[in-house]
């Protein structure tokens, strides 16, 4: 990897913060809007929010790592004082008001939308929804933990875990930029409810705050349920979900159609495809409109590493959707179906796991909810900075892990942040 030009070294975090202040008024609007439930706070809430934002930007990975860097000149200038102890950071975050953090994310969304940085994909606003488990433990648990019984031989053990449902926007790219993946919100799954119920609570809140942010939700097979489809239809939104054979009547109906009608040939990326596309199916009467089932049988050739021979791989995809024909043709619907997986592989995995967002910084329901919202906040700002502000020649060939390592170095070297770009 080439080294960075002299003027770009150890200035990334400084520039990221200057960008956040200039575009989003980070300190004065977003940070200032967050409160907590302490009666007589000794440490200002703003210091906690700013410290945790840096914890995520530099991907320090733990509150102890943040505490170890506490005396850096960086923090003296950024916070006006050293970072408080790991203990205090955890304790105050457990008392933070999640609504203030969500409103901060909304401010970022509004500014980016106004700056035309979150354009629709060919006239459609796309969102993807998914559930994630943040940790699992046999020992540590809290009142908000979900639990399950695992059997091994004759022994049974109770495992505790937390799970959230996250909604992410997948806008197109602004010309000359990479697209900004925007994490809109998440909702913790409660004891005794299933993931779809959690998702409906999330969507209820999101649709009130962002009524026009998206037109269609992409989701896994778990969400191919009538309550989920009807909920979105009633609010003027479309759904595209993976279809499995547990949706028995619809699946059998679709399979009969595949046998009765020939496919059409198509192409997705470099893969040759056979497509079946049947709108107007009535075999899922619990959903308030007829649904459309799309199947894509895809063939691609890969070179085997072992012997250098070409191997042909075939995959078979099945989706159920409310997206209409012909305004969303088969090729577009197939691409959307795949986009859900691209996001699983590149998007959620990096954003939720690569950012240490699934780490339990403090085992308390409210702390877990707020740390994840703080990760979304930091991540959205970084995404915007990365896509819209970093020059392509500086960005290219360098992973996001590279930038976070550079930011850690800045903190340890005590490079002071700047409020002006
Ligand atoms: Zn817990």
Number of strands: 10
How would you state the average pLDDT, rounded?
91
Q: What ranges have pLDDT less than 50 throughout 5 or more consecutive residues?
A: none
Principal-axes geometry comes out as globular
What about the largest sheet?
Answer: 10 strands, mixed
Explain this structure.
This protein is 41% helix and 22% strand. Strands 1, 2, 3, 4, 5, 6, 7, 8, 9 and 10 form a ten-stranded mixed beta sheet that branches. By secondary structure, it is an alpha+beta fold. The relative contact order is 0.18. The model has no long low-confidence stretch (mean pLDDT 91). The protein starts with 11 loop residues before the first helix and ends in an 8-residue tail after the last helix. Zinc ion is lined by residues 141-142, 144-145, 160, 162, 363. Zinc ion binds at residues 141-142, 144-145, 160, 162, 363.
List keywords for this structure.
single chain, 421 residues, alpha+beta, 10-stranded mixed sheet, 14 helices, 10 strands, globular, binds zinc ion
Topology:
Layout: H1 12-24, H2 26-30, H3 45-57, H4 63-68, H5 73-79, H6 86-93, H7 98-114, E1 126-137, E2 146-152, E3 155-169, E4 182-188, H8 195-209, E5 216-219, H9 226-234, E6 238-242, H10 248-260, E7 264-268, E8 271-281, E9 291-303, E10 310-321, H11 330-354, H12 365-389, H13 392-395, H14 400-413
The site of zinc ion has 7 residues, from strand 3.
Give a short synopsis of this structure.
41% of the residues lie in helices and 22% in strands.
């Amino acid at each position: 990897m080439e080294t960075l030009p002299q003027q770009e070294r150890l200035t990334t975090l400084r520039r990221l913060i200057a960008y956040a202040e200039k575009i989003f008024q980070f300190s004065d609007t977003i940070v200032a809007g967050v409160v907590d439930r302490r009666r007589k706070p000794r440490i200002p809430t703003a210091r906690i929010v700013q410290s945790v934002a840096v914890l995520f930007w530099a991907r320090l990975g733990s509150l102890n790592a943040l505490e170890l860097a506490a005396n850096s000149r960086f923090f003296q200038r950024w916070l006006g004082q050293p970072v408080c102890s790991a203990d205090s950071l955890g304790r105050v975050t457990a008392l933070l008001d999640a609504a203030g953090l969500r409103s901060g994310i909304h401010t970022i969304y509004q500014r980016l939308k106004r700056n035309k940085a979150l354009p629709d994909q060919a006239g459609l606003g796309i969102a993807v929804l998914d559930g994630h488990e943040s940790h699992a433990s046999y020992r540590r648990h809290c009142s908000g933990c979900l639990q399950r019984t695992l059997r091994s031989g004759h022994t049974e053990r109770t495992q505790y875990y937390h799970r959230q449902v996250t909604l992410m926007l997948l806008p197109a790219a602004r010309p000359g930029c990479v697209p900004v993946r925007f994490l809109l919100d998440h909702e913790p799954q409660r004891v005794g409810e299933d993931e779809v119920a959690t998702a409906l609570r999330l969507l209820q809140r999101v649709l009130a705050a962002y009524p026009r942010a998206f037109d269609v939700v992409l989701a896994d097979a778990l969400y191919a349920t009538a309550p989920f489809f009807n909920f979105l239809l009633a609010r003027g939104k479309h759904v595209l979900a993976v279809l499995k054979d547990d949706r028995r009547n619809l699946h059998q109906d679709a399979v009969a159609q595949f046998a009765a009608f020939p496919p059409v040939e198509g192409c997705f990326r470099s893969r040759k495809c056979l497509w079946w596309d049947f709108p107007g199916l009535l075999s899922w009467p619990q959903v308030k409109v007829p649904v459309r089932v799309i199947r894509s049988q895809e063939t691609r050739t890969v070179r085997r590493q072992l012997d250098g021979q070409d191997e042909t791989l075939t995959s078979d995809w099945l989706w159920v959707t409310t997206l209409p024909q012909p305004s969303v043709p088969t090729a577009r619907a197939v691409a959307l179906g795949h986009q859900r997986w691209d996001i699983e592989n590149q998007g959620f995995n990096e954003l939720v796991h690569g950012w240490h967002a699934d780490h339990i910084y403090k085992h308390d329901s409210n702390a877990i909810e707020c740390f994840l919202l703080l990760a979304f906040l930091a991540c959205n700002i970084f995404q915007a900075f990365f896509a819209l502000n970093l020059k392509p020649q500086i960005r290219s060939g360098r992973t996001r892990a590279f930038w976070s390592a550079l930011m850690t170095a800045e903190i340890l070297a005590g490079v002071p942040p700047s409020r002006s770009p």
